[in-house]
Design a protein that fits this description.
4-stranded antiparallel beta sheet; 347 residues; 4 helices; single chain; alpha+beta; Elongation Factor Tu (Ef-tu), domain 3; conserved putative lor/sdh protein from methanococcus maripaludis s2 fold; 6-stranded antiparallel barrel; 18 strands; MdtA-like_C; 4 domains
């Protein structure tokens, strides 16, 4: 009787049994069955394709000048501010010249003194020579050793005094900054009456008559780049705009990046970009090595190493030999072997 009572179905036992059956079913379906990888396909499409060499860089002008004083001093005036246009030869800034004016007067006085001394020595020599032989005896050829030494000493002192004047006059020139180029003032100190040194940047002028984008290309890609290649520039400040240009210069000097890579600077001449020029704006350059319009293309992952693809036709997969062409960052041109709208397997 106890066994029969244990085996007798009850509502509680039926519910527990149902829960166990459902749990077993779910475990089998989610963990027991082997998963099948779903094949992915892409259509053969017709589009424009470009092979590029891409690298980052900066916006700049045709040339630039960082203007500093050669000697320290008190800044008296600065005639420009950031954003101004200047012309070549324009006076930009100047230092206090009071001390130099005093020094110039002192050197001029010294020259007058040394010149008078020289004249006196020569007069004495010539008078001595005249008294000992007349006019025919006057001249350096008839000087005694003592006379020659006196004359030479006086003339050297006079010449040194003259050189001192030239040095002070040169220092006067160094108290004024004159722009060597015309262009846009991109930096300018704005605090006069302060002491500045030769290390202080007073003004930076950039010639914006031609706008360039300088970019560093890895030496491994240099063989792909040549003068005149079209280039597309995107600036971080204008992410929705593309600026066109051409490779204008390949600078004949390598440099090493902080990561240890060897790069070469490429100068790209932009076609009059309609943007406010800001020296140093960062961006990306895509130098177009090859391009084709309306080419048949497939994703690069569909092309195998042996230049074959797997084509789906009537739910059947078959291998197809193709001839690839231009490769972009994501796609590859197919010159022969496929037709538009065919489906290819992605590996």
């Amino acid at each position: 009787m106890g066994v029969l009572k244990l085996l007798r179905p009850t509502r509680k036992k039926v519910v527990i049994l149902a829960i166990l059956v459902i749990a077993a079913f779910l475990v089998f379906n989610f963990f027991g069955r082997p998963k099948q990888n779903q094949l992915q396909f892409a259509n053969v499409t017709r589009q424009d394709i470009k092979a590029t060499v891409s690298s980052s860089g900066n916006l700049t002008g045709k040339s630039s000048a960082d203007l500093r004083f050669k000697t320290p001093g008190k800044l008296i005036f600065i005639n420009v501010k950031t954003g101004d246009k200047v012309f070549a030869g324009q006076v930009i800034a100047g230092l206090d010249t009071q001390d130099l004016s005093i020094a110039l007067q002192q050197t001029q006085n010294t020259l007058r003194d040394k010149q008078a001394t020289t004249d006196k020595v020569l007069d004495d020599i010539h008078l001595f020579q005249y008294g000992n032989g007349g006019f025919e005896s006057v001249g350096s050829a008839n000087e005694t050793m003592t006379q020659r030494q006196l004359r030479t000493t006086a003339e050297v002192a006079r010449d040194n005094a003259f050189d001192s004047i030239k040095a002070v006059q040169r220092d006067f020139q160094d108290t004024v900054i004159i722009s060597p180029i015309g262009g846009l003032v991109t930096q300018a100190i704005q605090v006069p009456n302060q002491t500045v040194t030769g290390a202080d940047l007073i003004t930076q002028v950039v010639d914006t008559s031609t706008v360039y984008f300088d970019t560093d290309v890895d030496e491994a890609d240099l063989g792909k780049v040549s003068l005149g290649l079209p280039t597309e520039i995107t600036l971080d400040a204008y992410p929705d705009s593309v600026f066109n240009g051409i490779v204008d210069q390949i600078l004949p000097q390598t440099k090493i990046t902080t990561q240890g890579a060897t790069v070469v600077t490429i100068r790209i001449k932009l076609d009059n970009p309609a943007v406010t020029f800001v020296n140093g704006l960062t961006g990306q350059a895509a130098i177009i090595i090859e391009s084709a319009k309306g080419a048949l293309t497939i994703p690069q992952e569909a092309l195998r190493e042996d230049n074959t693809v797997v084509v789906q036709q009537d739910q059947v997969l078959r291998s197809q030999k193709v001839i690839p062409g231009i490769r972009s960052d994501t796609d590859v041109e197919i010159k022969e072997g496929l037709q538009e709208n065919e489906k290819v397997l992605l590996s």
